[in-house]
Write a structure and sequence with these properties.
Layout (H helix, E strand, L loop, with lengths): L2 H11 L4 H17 L11 H14 L4 H8 L11 H23 L8 H14 L3 H16 L6 H21 L3 H15 L1 H35 L4 E8 L2 H7 L14 E7 L2 H14 L1 E9 L12 E6 L5 E8 H20 L3 H4 L12 H5 L3 H8 L3 E5 L5 E5 L4 H8 L1 H5 L1 E6 L2 E3 L11 E5 L16 H14 L7 E10 L4 H11 L3 E10 L2 E10 L2 H14 L3 E4 L1
Parallel strand pairs: 2-5
Antiparallel strand pairs: 1-2, 3-4, 4-5, 6-7, 8-9, 8-10, 11-13, 11-14, 12-13
Helix pairs in contact: 1-3, 2-4, 3-4, 3-7, 4-5, 5-7, 6-8, 7-8, 7-9, 8-9, 9-10, 10-11, 17-19
């Protein structure tokens, strides 16, 4: 795809200004250079995938920054480019977005269970600092799913499962329903191809049979709405997505005739008042099923979705669902958070400032406008929780303020009972270290170690506290306050020396409360704060370190 072709497609989705296009063109040719020679599994240039990712974002009318980040989203991972070069060429903002997309991509779904899937989705949302990052990642995943057939069967199933369990629900959670539905459909296509294809053929047959009928119905409905002076913007019909039918069939005894919303008309009008007037017209034309009526305008869904839904029976005994909404509701229902991002950016443009319609009047976009503080709201929701990882990539939910001890007891009681230390992100941390979202934790154990009563003041979770109390009671351990002592070690520097000294301290059942180190002229200076029962343990520990680690020059 050359730039002219790309630009024409871009403009067909959103009218980017000349200054925007200059920057996007620079990103295009930069991408062409850094992705040069890199091919996808189907043999096409890697740049094509990045351009399609950008076009997915353009379809949602998103900003030039997001288009550029879409083109360059794999620059640091797959392209011939480093962070410094990217920052020099495109600045802090684009680099930040690209790094965020890479961060999300580093988490792998291990095909565990629904709890693991929910924890991973929460982790992704908890670690990001900008909602645009998730939207770019979803645009990337959408294009990957559309071209998935070129991968091996094993990879197709793994990526499809991750899409179905992680990315489609994420899109739904952010209100980007259009993408969520397509991601679900594409995932099902590879996870259960036999049932997917059979269902697809059956739905297509029913739609084909009823298409002329629906066109005729559409004309008469249009006429009636206009006769009532209802300002109709658009009326069309949609076919229920295959994945939605697939999920609904078990609840309907696998009887497709019991799915009343297989076909649905979508009526878009200019105001909330006209939504209810249009509903009255529909109910005057057809007999409604009252148990199939939902007012999501008065009572929006948790993600902000608004619309009137009603199912009717026509004279020919056909079930048809009607969805009635304003243009602003429709925009939000399809694109959710992305609609807000586009709207907020458009307000800064000359087109908006000249009072030309961009998306909607701000007063009619209250729900979308509420998403402005979505990140703050989300952080508030999860202010009492954190999401950390095991070395194998499993996501663990813990109370905010938890320590490695809480993590150990969450995994297994024995891991907690024999705890002597922990590495977080491959670095030794104190026993009272406060875990952060995204931390990778490895527990160090000693089978001779037993819980200490003073651990009760360190742990945050009720689970850990309960298990420590039970073990202390069982062992009849008497509480004796621990002594915290500093140790300074000077040694000849070498790879792995810090790990060896740490393991030696842990092997004696001594907790490391804090540590730091620095290197100078071939020597490493290591400072530990350790927790012991009495001072003579420190003397024995110092002698042990000096005798066991040959590179040690001095221990103080």
């Amino acid at each position: 795809m050359d730039f002219e072709n790309f630009k024409n497609k871009l403009i067909s989705y959103n009218n980017y200004g000349p200054e925007d296009l200059i920057l996007i063109e620079r990103a295009f040719y930069f991408g062409e250079k850094i992705y040069q020679g890199i091919k996808r599994k189907n043999g096409e240039p890697y740049l094509n995938h990045c351009l399609r990712t950008a076009l997915n974002l353009a379809e949602l009318k998103l900003s030039k920054e997001m288009i550029i980040a879409g083109i360059l989203h794999d620059a640091l991972k797959d392209g011939n480019c480093n962070e410094e070069k990217l920052k020099t060429e495109f600045g802090e903002e684009i680099t930040f977005l690209v790094k965020g997309v890479n961060k999300i991509g580093s988490y792998r779904y291990q095909e565990k269970n629904l709890i693991q899937a929910e924890n991973l989705r929460n982790l992704i949302l908890a670690i990001i600092k900008d909602p645009r990052i998730v939207v770019i990642k979803l645009a990337d995943r959408l294009d990957n799913m559309r071209t998935l057939e070129f991968l091996s069967d094993e990879k197709r199933k793994r990526i499809s499962l991750e899409t179905a369990d992680i990315y489609a629900p994420l899109a739904l959670r952010l209100g980007i329903n259009n993408w969520a539905g397509e991601l679900d459909d594409l995932a099902l296509k590879f996870l259960d191809p036999e049932n997917y294809n059979a269902l697809k053929l059956e739905i297509e047959k029913r739609v084909a049979d009823g298409k002329s009928y629906l066109e005729k119905l559409k004309t008469s409905i249009e006429r009636e709405l206009k006769n009532k002076n209802i300002n109709l913007i658009k009326i069309d019909y949609r076919v229920k997505r295959i994945s939605s039918v697939y999920k609904k069939l078990p609840r309907k005894n696998f009887d497709l005739d019991q799915i009343y919303d297989l076909l649905a008309f979508r009526i878009i009008v200019n105001s909330v008042e006209n939504c209810y007037l249009a509903l009255g017209v529909i109910h005057s034309l057809f007999k409604p099923l009252m148990h199939e009526f939902d007012d999501y305008i008065a009572f929006p869904k948790p993600n902000g979705y608004r619309s009137l839904h009603t199912t009717v029976i026509t004279e020919e005994n056909k079930y048809i669902e009607f969805q009635i909404r304003t243009e602003e509701m429709h925009l939000f229902n399809e694109y959710g958070l992305a609609a807000y991002l586009a709207y907020a950016k458009a307000k800064q443009t000359k087109i908006y400032q000249k009072n030309k319609t961009v998306f909607a009047d701000e007063k009619e976009l209250k729900i979308i406008n509420n998403l402005k503080n979505w990140q703050e709201n989300f952080q508030e929701i999860f202010s009492e929780k954190i999401y950390v990882l095991t070395p194998k990539g499993d996501v663990i939910e813990l109370p905010a303020g938890s320590t490695p001890l809480d993590f150990a007891y969450k995994i297994h009681t024995d891991l907690g009972n024999h705890f002597v230390g922990a590495r977080v992100n491959q670095k030794i941390v104190p026993i009272n270290y406060k875990l952060q979202n995204g931390d990778v934790i490895e527990i160090i154990v000693n089978k001779n170690r037993k819980p200490s009563p003073d651990w009760l003041s360190i742990v945050k979770s009720a689970n850990a506290r309960k298990k420590i109390k039970a073990e202390v009671k069982k062992e009849n351990i008497i509480f004796v306050p621990k002594i915290i002592q500093p140790i300074k070690i000077i040694a000849q520097d070498r790879i792995g020396i810090l790990k060896d000294i740490t393991n030696l301290i842990s092997s004696k059942g001594i907790n490391i409360i804090g540590s730091k180190n620095k290197s100078k002229k071939g020597l490493v200076y290591i400072y530990f704060d350790v927790q012991v029962n009495e001072k003579k343990e420190i003397i024995a520990l110092k002698d042990l370190i000096k005798n066991k680690i040959k590179e040690v020059v001095e221990v103080e």
